[in-house]
Amino acid sequence: MKATLILANGSIFEGQSIGSTEDCVCEMVFNTSMVGYQEILTDPSYAGQGIVMSYPLIGNYGVNSEDNESSRPWGEAFVVRHLSRRGSNFRCEGDLDDYLKEHGITGIQGVDTRAITRILRSQGTMNGMITCAEDFCIQDVLKTVEAYRVKGTVERVTRKAVQVYPPLIRQKLRVALMDFGVKENMIRCLQSRGCEVTVFPAHTTAQEILAGRYDGVMLSNGPGDPSDNVAIIQEIRDLYDAGIPIFAVCLGHQLMALATGASTRKMRFGHRGANHPVKDLDAGRVFITSQNHGYVVCAESVSPEVAAVSHVNVNEGSVEGLRYKNGNVYTVQFHPEASPGPKDTEYLFDRFIRRMEGGAW
Ligand SMILES: NC(=O)CC[C@H](N)C(=O)O
């Protein structure tokens, strides 16, 4: 069936429908990863967004029940150049198109995703619509597309009840994890280091967390504009003031910065992919990291009395990590739990463990 992608700047791309045939309006972002499409689709940070894969061949190893990063795919729409009709891999349990259909994710293939990427890169992330309708009125579509906003997404993706994950080796520590849209591997990275992980819904109060006498708190990644989370930012401020060791990733990193007086801004097209070079300024080393974010902490808004920049993006110098002066808080913008090849940045979990055991980061 024919499908059409319309971008907010009026560009129109015709292709074939994949996944659901329902109309879908969302914010279109591009991801430069060559593989990892199942992890990308199930990353809750994509709620409200349509994912344009710049790499042209997607779906060639199918899908399986082990690679999900959460309970379901959260990306609203999926845009690819060529979707493999049949997945081929010893771990393959199904085809990507069936998976998209099963979960009601609207998609399109047969469009030039590199051309779309160049539009989003030069003009910035913009909204778009995928429709299978033949006779749409472009003026009406553009009005709907322009009116769309990513809102209330943390509330949609967070767990509704507390969930406890046992340690995978002998237990050393107990960690409270705030779920703003957590990726499963973040939990596993703590479990495999001897932590019992208690995952809390996003709107749990600091008081409730502190009453549990955990060794440390982890703030997860998550979707949307960080500054929309006013009530959550207040609770994070209270956790910060309590002096408990806190490690935060992506949205968690942005929320901690907002809670301590810094500001965030929307980037033109963000960082989404598995090849983003980040320099750890303390170690003097560059790591290739996996990323998915559209907002960033403004470097000039970070007070030197509160935190120092610990990691920077090698491509354009943006803030990728903050080491807080109180000695208890460390936060990073990229995903240390993801392995875009090697597992090099998992050392940050080891630092968190060290801090919870009473050592320095
Ligand atoms: N992966 C994340 O946590 C993303 C954080 C935030 N939603 C952003 O886009 O910047």
What's the layout of helices and strands?
Elements: E1 2-7, E2 12-19, E3 24-31, H1 37-41, E4 49-53, E5 57-58, E6 77-80, E7 82-83, H2 96-102, E8 106-109, H3 113-123, E9 126-131, H4 138-147, H5 153-157, E10 163-165, E11 173-179, H6 184-191, E12 195-201, H7 206-211, E13 216-219, H8 230-242, E14 246-249, H9 251-259, E15 264-280, E16 285-297, E17 307-313, E18 319-324, E19 329-332, H10 347-356
Parallel strand pairs: 3-4, 4-6, 5-7, 6-8, 11-12, 11-13, 13-14, 14-19
Antiparallel strand pairs: 1-2, 1-9, 2-8, 3-9, 10-12, 15-16, 15-17, 17-18, 18-19
Helix pairs in contact: 8-9
Bound molecules: glutamine.
Glutamine is lined by residues 45, 221-224, 226, 250-251, 292-295.
Keywords: Amino-acid biosynthesis, Arginine biosynthesis, ATP-binding, Glutamine amidotransferase, Ligase, Nucleotide-binding, Pyrimidine biosynthesis
InterPro entries: Anth_synth/Amidotransfase, CarbamoylP_synth_ssu, CarbamoylP_synth_ssu_N, CarbP_synth_ssu_N_sf, Class_I_gatase-like, CPSase_GATase1, GATASE
Active site: 250, 335, 337
Give structural notes.
There is one protein chain. The chain is α/β, with parallel strands linked by helices and 361 residues long. It has 2 domains: 2-150, Carbamoyl-phosphate synthase small subunit, N-terminal domain (Glucose Oxidase, domain 1, 3-Layer(bba) Sandwich); 154-356, Rossmann fold (3-Layer(aba) Sandwich). 23% of the residues lie in helices and 32% in strands. The strands form 3 sheets. A 10-stranded mixed beta sheet has the order 10-12-11-13-14-19-18-17-15-16, with helices on both faces. A 7-stranded mixed beta barrel has the order 1-2-8-6-4-3-9. It has a two-stranded parallel sheet with strand order 5-7. Helix 8 (230-242) packs across helix 9. The longest helix has 13 residues, at 230-242. Bound molecules: glutamine. Glutamine is lined by residues 45, 221-224, 226, 250-251, 292-295. L-glutamine binds at residues 45, 222, 224, 251, 254, 292, 294-295.
